[in-house]
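Recall from the previous chapter that SMILES is a line notation for molecules. Here it describes flavin-adenine dinucleotide.
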Amino acid sequence: MSISPLINRRDLDFLVFDWLQAERLCERPRHAEHTRATLSAAIDTAEAVARDRFAPLNRLCDEHEPRFDGERVHLPPEVGDALRAYCDAGLLAASHDFELGGMQLPTLVAQACGSLFKAANIAISSYAGLTQGNANVILRFGTEAQRQRYLPHLLSGRFMGTMALTEPQAGSSLADIRTTATPMGEGRYAIKGQKIFISAGDHALSENIVHLVLARLPDAPPGVKGISLFIVPKFRVHDDGQLGPHNDVNLAGLIHKMGWRGTTSTMLSFGERDACHGELIGPPHQGLACMFQMMNEARIGVGMGAAMLGYRGYLAALDYARDRPQGRLPDSKNPQEPQRKLIEHADVRRMLLAQKAYVEGGYALCLYAARLVDDQHTHPDEAQRQEAALLLDVLTPIVKSWPSQWCLAANDLAIQVHGGYGYTREYPVEQFYRDNRLNPIHEGTHGIQAMDLLGRKMLMQQGAGMALLAHRMSQTIQATHLNPMLQEMAEAVRAALADLQSTLAVLHPVLAEDPVRGLANAAVFLEACGHTVLAWLWLEQARVAASALSAGPHADEAAFLEGKLQACRYFCRWELPRTQAQYALLRTLDETPLDMIAGWF
Ligand SMILES: Cc1cc2nc3c(=O)[nH]c(=O)nc-3n(C[C@H](O)[C@H](O)[C@H](O)COP(=O)(O)OP(=O)(O)OC[C@H]3O[C@@H](n4cnc5c(N)ncnc54)[C@H](O)[C@@H]3O)c2cc1C
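With both inputs in hand, we obtain:
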């Protein structure tokens, strides 16, 4: 089976450099040692390691699930080699300080590098992503001693990290967590409880595993306000980094999954022998707020993973459609005429164009979010830093959910383009679909993201986040509506934004008075708002493409740019109109699902 390209590199460069202007980030003191050439070189390195070391293992990891022999968890040995190559290339600490062994890359570029690994092998890339997120929490909330004890080892790959939130009775509802932390003196706590679905929770890929565990102190108030965060290593760690005894963190079982099989999914038991020690990180009872740093990063990571799995499927479908002859066009009457390639059939083009619109759109959305992280942390102007943080906050549920829904839909279409062959294990598209099916579930399900968007993000700071989003969208409309190439699309985005705003005007009072009714159709709102945001980002891409086209580029480049414009047209003509029905339904405050009482099913 041939390995289709990981990604269209021209698209990556278009989004990162032409649109989001990564080079301008080198003007900021934190990235002053970088240039366009060093940023591109980092992406080249990532592409080479992802293509040569991660991608060839994608099917292997799927077919050889992690196995527990009663003592240790086994993965194919090549997985450890691939991760070592990743660490040796300096990619684990890509965005961290030079002093910590990092490259001080802008988040935008670090995310672009990461996207290539997600495209190559989502399961292996999870070990790295979780370790990075874990290290970032310790960097931000840990004491100096905790940073020194854990950070160098996490950022070098000697230790790896997890996030241990979920319990059997507490999945979406973290308020119901029962794991306990009892003070033992000298800053140590005895941890006791069960966690489930913990990704990368056990393996032998690193010397140690550092779990970030949500648990309750004895005096904790009920609910989310009584949750604290603890560092709980598998092996205790001395101040000099040497490993101490096993810390009574035990594998209670491996979970066998539909996809994403190269990442161990574990049930973990903490403190079975009352010998599990944890260290409090961050203030007591504010563990969820600290953990949200990792969860928010992880949510961009989930969106990016979904976009990349969709992208791989799209490129595989494109290759296949260019190659396979089948049938003739509707106006052909001669059965002896040679068969046409699949890509010549209008319906196959429809499926390919939909995939392109979803995956390149989803990729743009995630990279835009990464650019906001850069502005939040390094923009020279404080007001701009705050704006970026606010916009990122509003967009996070969409960044997590939109690619998880629509790039999964792209994987579905990629199978369809392959016909019967797509349903077989001889072709990679079925695995992309299975791997991607996780994304609407973990890191807050689709339904939970929907309630977060409508019930919290749209209301926060008296609607300031939504007002800022509308302002940014209006700026793009302003910049495009007089251009004959873009006028029609600008008008469509303007109409969708107006629809969104008038829908919110109807929903706002209901959300305050009767949240059960107000939030009942939140998932419809998430989809409509998500499509509206994506139409805006497609218009942004079209703006850049139209301007580049007017300079008369060479034929290949012109074809790439025309493709961007056509995908924007497709999105505005075929996709965006579905929001009209969704917004109209939302404005009626329809209660059909809400009124469907349990006994009627
Ligand atoms: C492969 C995999 C990897 C994972 N990795 C990790 C990890 O590393 N660390 C970790 O801590 N967790 C992890 N998880 C757990 C994951 O975050 C949870 O599965 C997820 O949050 C949902 O919880 P649940 O499975 O208990 O489903 P439930 O919470 O029972 O939800 C079931 C359904 O009910 C809906 N629902 C639930 N509550 C509400 C509500 N109040 N209103 C409306 N609808 C609701 C949900 O949207 C969903 O559709 C992982 C899960 C999987 C499958």
